[in-house]
Description:
9 helices; six-stranded mixed beta sheet; 14 strands; alpha/beta
Amino acid sequence: MNTTRRKFIKQATTGLAAITLTPQELWAKPEPVKLTILHTNDMHSRVEPFPNDGRKWGGLGGMARRASLIKQIRQQEPNVLLLDAGDIIQGTPYFNFFGGEVELKLMSQMGYDAATLGNHDFDNGLEGLEKMLPFAKFPYLIANYDFSQESKLKSSFQPYKIFEKQGVKIGVFGLGIELRGLVLEKHFGSIKYMDPVGVAKEMVQTLKAQKCNLIVCISHLGYKYEDDPNRISDIHLAQKVEGIDIILGGHTHTFLDKPDEIISKSGHKTIINQVGWAGIRLGRVDFVFEKGKVKTTPQTTSSLVIGEEFDRF
Length: 313
């Protein structure tokens, strides 16, 4: 046997031996993937903390503190998704003088991944909405508002977006509240409101067809309405639409101490969370995926209070 052939056989045999000796490397199970979802709602232009003068929520909130907290969490967690459930603007001189520019620029710097529309996004009419949108370096997702008759805005929104984190696909869609009765008609023009329950069912089917491992709804419908139990809310949505994994809500300024869980007849669990208003809290829900499916849904905490303790970051 010549030298070249002997050398080739030796190299091939050595390679086969290495494969035989380390089968665990070939058949190793993929590591679980952790996803951290952070969320806010109803910030209402509260750029600065509430004055610490003895009033309710004094010393709490502030976008600089929120940015520091988000940065800290991103340093600790490998896969973070940051979402907002509407009414980012209205309520302080920042909006009165700058029309949403300050709030959206700061949220863009924080790296928000998506937001949905709240009723107060129409306070300056469609012209005001159009003017502020370029300052948002993240998409507004809204599935149940039809902008097709508004030539300047019909291409500004999308119903959903799919994010991917370490091979896990997260489908996120947005739902807005009925504007009629909350907003002057001249301020929302020819926008058509569509039934959020029917639209949500369509979104679930669409996102499942695209093999999403988690389906998230950012909602400005409101948590629930004690005085009008038939009014569509996040509770209704979870009860009537199977397949949504988590609803991150807004509008009712509800401080949930921990996320609600709604179990369908087939056993599907939908988590609902909302963190008050004014940027006082940052919501957080953690998911762990194994083989593409949710292994556990531990709530690290439902919300983190943004206060003076975060000034040091």
